[in-house]
Amino acid sequence: MENTTITIEEIKSFNHKIDALSTSIELKDQEIKDLSKKIEIEQNSIKKLEKSVELEKKLRKMPCQAYGSVTFYNLMNEKFVLFEPEQFNKITRFVELIEKTEAKYRAHYLKSVEQYTKNVTDSCFSDCEKVDKNLQNMYSIIAILTNEVDKDKVKFNKAYNLLEDKGLFLTANEKNLNQMLVNMTGVLHELKDELRSIRSNVAESNMLLNEISGGIDYSNSLLFDVSSDTKELKDINTSIQTNNLISSVQSVQLHKINKNTKPKKG
Q: 188-213 burial by CB neighbour count: b if 16+ within 10 A, else e?
């Protein structure tokens, strides 16, 4: 039969091997974590690069500068006599709005070109797309106004009325007045809330006054009861005093009678 006894030295050696293996596992685990972080960083870099490529493709398809207003500007001058003076003046305001929107588009586009390789989450890209979409709608409307002024009058008036209803023909003073009305509406809403608060406070005060009034009524009732009791006590006291007086008079009278009826000494 073989000797299976394990010595202390063998146990110590075995423990050392386990410790070394555990340390090695911890090191490998840390290496895996570090590698995972590097992979995550690389994946994010790849996503950022893919987004940059996507943005670059979009920017290449978009015009670097919008100048459609120039075409309609010249067309309006050519057809000046076909417009009524008031119409021409108001449509000119709309052309000015288009020019400002084109300048805004140019600013967003330049910022997008600068940022698409640096910060793909910048809002300038979505802003540029929104402004471009707005410009296309504006171009469509001004095209109707300039092309149909001497042709389809119904179509012309529909486009004109649409802009007028949206307030795009307003002067600076009219816009300021509208803003003032909007501000006044806000103030009126605030006053309405204040009045609601005041009414609530008044209702609470009325409730408190009602409680105080009830307490006063109760106190008056108690005072009335006490007054009634006092009157009864006074009546009783008066009655007692009257009876005593009658008894005293009767005693004096009896004394006089007794004195007069006594026999006289000879």
A: eeeeeeeeeeeeeeeeeeeeeeeeee
Q: How far apart are CA 152 and CA 139, in angstroms?
A: 18
Task: Say if CB 163 and CB 141 are below 8 A apart.
Answer: yes
Long-range contacts formed by 178-183: CB under 8 A, 24+ apart: none
Over range 149-160, report the average pLDDT: 92
Share of the chain above pLDDT 90, in %: 29
Neighbouring residues of 2: CB distance < 8 A, sequence distance ≥ 6: none
What span, in angstroms and rounded, lies between the C-alpha atoms of 49 and 117?
8
Give CA separation, 21 vs 17, 26, 28, in Å: 6, 9, 10
State which amino acid sits at residue 259.
K
Element (H, E) at 169: none
State the helix-helix crossing angle for 124-147 and 8-61, rounded to 10 degrees. 20
Pick from 142, 163, 156: nearest CA to 71: 142
| pLDDT 10s digits, 116-137 | 888 888 888 889 999 999 999 9
